[in-house]
Amino acid sequence: MQLRLINPNTTAGMTATIGEAATRIAAPGTRIIATQPDAGPVSIESHFDEAVAAVGVQEEVLAGEREGTDAYIIACFGDPGLLAARELTRAPVIGIAEAAFHMASLISTRFSVVTTLGRTAIIAEHLLAQYGFAHHCRRVRAAEIPVLDLEEDGDAALVRIIDEGRRARDEDGIGAIVLGCGGMADLTEEITEAVGLPVVEGVTAAVKLAEALVGLGLGTSKHGDLAFPRPKAFTGRFEHFSGLMPRQ
Ligand code: 2AL
């Protein structure tokens, strides 16, 4: 099984971190291909960053379709471009936020999210509402660390995430914590140990969900709104999307 793990930001170090965490958790028969868009924001921490990154995600799915990909993961906690990506393929496409919410709801009645910057909490809150998990989540908390600090100042970032995780444990009345950034993929063990609650991390959760779907023979439905987009002309720098023909 070939799993294309798309880091929607363009920081190669973060793509490597995410790829290594996914490879460690993957089943022996799963081949992880960690990729990132050629162009776009180095980190995603605003609505604007997300909108730009979402196009790069589609390019990565189209590249994956040329290589016979069995499943895709969008490894940014805003799940940028998720439904659009599903339109482009019959393979399953899983966002790390939705993967983490699903997994957390299976092991706890209530969870809190610990994300990076407070200004991006609204992105997770919108997704919780959209996916139907708002009642399962007590609070979206922020450790107030810029995304790239996870790569560049990892030790200080870890301390802040653990502090916020402990506050969530003590104040929120929860059973589990969800980590709210792809760049936290390698921190699960340390945070679990320090906080003492189950910690659900989206990249690893998504790998296991992707393996389950492929094992069940389930892919993205092409019936209804997730059908391939109608071929049409695209102009200017999106001309290469013109007459897009899906893999059959
Ligand atoms: C993210 C993420 O997962 N990757 C990134 O660049 N920005 N989202 C977040 N809430 O930190």
UniProtKB/TrEMBL annotation:
Domain of life, per the record?
Bacteria
What InterPro entries does UniProt report for this protein, alphabetically?
Asp/Glu/hydantoin_racemase (IPR015942), Hydantoin_racemase-like (IPR052186), Iso_Racemase_Enz_sf (IPR053714)
Cross-referenced Pfam families: Asp_Glu_race
Q: So what family is this one in?
A: Belongs to the HyuE racemase family.
| Entry protein name | Aspartate/glutamate racemase family protein
Q: Which organism is it from?
A: Halomonas salifodinae
